[in-house]
Write a structure and sequence with these properties.
The protein is built from two helices and three strands, in the order αβββα. The protein is an alpha+beta fold. The protein is 44% helix and 25% strand. The protein is globular. The model has no long low-confidence stretch (mean pLDDT 81). It has a three-stranded antiparallel beta sheet.
Length: 80
């Protein structure tokens, strides 16, 4: 369980950095080595390394949808 928690925290940390960069456009799912991955797409249409990997494609789609909803919210001034 500890490894899974650490993986989740790392995924969240990478996601926050990606969104705060100001270059983040959206999250998408891709297929890599038989796993569904969530990647970030930058404004120049390049993609990040996989942020998360799932065996179940539905979980990857759910994660991408949540990321896109989070990225659409304007950050609070206090967050700086």
């Amino acid at each position: 369980m500890t490894a899974k928690l650490a993986d989740t925290q790392l995924w969240q940390h990478n996601l926050i950095s990606l969104i705060r960069s100001g270059l983040f456009l959206r999250a998408e799912t891709r297929l890599s080595h038989g796993l569904s991955t969530v990647v970030g797409v930058y404004s120049d249409e390049t993609v990040s390394a996989p942020l998360a990997k799932y065996a179940d494609p539905r979980r990857a789609e759910d994660a991408a949808n949540i990321v896109n909803r989070l990225a659409s919210v304007t950050p609070l001034v206090e967050a700086n």
